[in-house]
Amino acid sequence: MPVGDPKFAIVNPDPTVDNCMKSMRFGDWMSLGGITTGSWVYGYLVGKPFRTASASCAATIGFTFGSIFLLQNTRGRFMGHKENSREVRIYGLDPNQPPKYEAPDRRNPTYRGLVSDNMKTKMDW
């Protein structure tokens, strides 16, 4: 995930796997099916002596990769790093949003750091 402030609105700054699974889009499920099917075909074509065993193993690896990839994309939408208009409409906005900064002069910008102050974790010493 990117380190700086998100470009889109934050829906949930710390989503769980359950939240991500419940909010997957149709395209996410189709991507998972495509990655799994493609890896099965690859395993079948490459694994000459044991085609079905190689294909099943490759499909398992592809399914694992697809699951992790889709959870990463869904988490990015919740945290505001990817386009998330549907999630904002369904779940609403998080009350703690980073401020939107406009560069006063694009030719002579001033350094503000990577993360705004209200997005940093508060240390409880």
Key phrases:
125 residues, mainly alpha
What does this structure look like?
- By secondary structure, the protein is an all-alpha fold.
- It has a domain at 25-94.
- The protein has four helices and no strands.
- The protein has helices at residues 17-22, 26-46, 51-78, 85-91.
- Helix 2 (26-46) runs antiparallel to helix 3.
- The model has no long low-confidence stretch (mean pLDDT 87).
What is the chain-wise order of helices and strands? HHHH
Determine Rg (CA atoms, Å): 20 Å
Structural class: mainly alpha
> Helical amount among residues, as a percent range?
40-55%
Mean pLDDT: 87
pLDDT < 50 stretches: none
N-to-C span: 27 Å
Task: Provide a count of the helices.
Answer: 4
Which term fits the overall shape? elongated
Work out the number of β strands: 0
Quick one: biggest sheet? Answer: none
Compact summary:
The chain has helices at residues 17-22, 26-46, 51-78, 85-91. The protein is mostly helical.
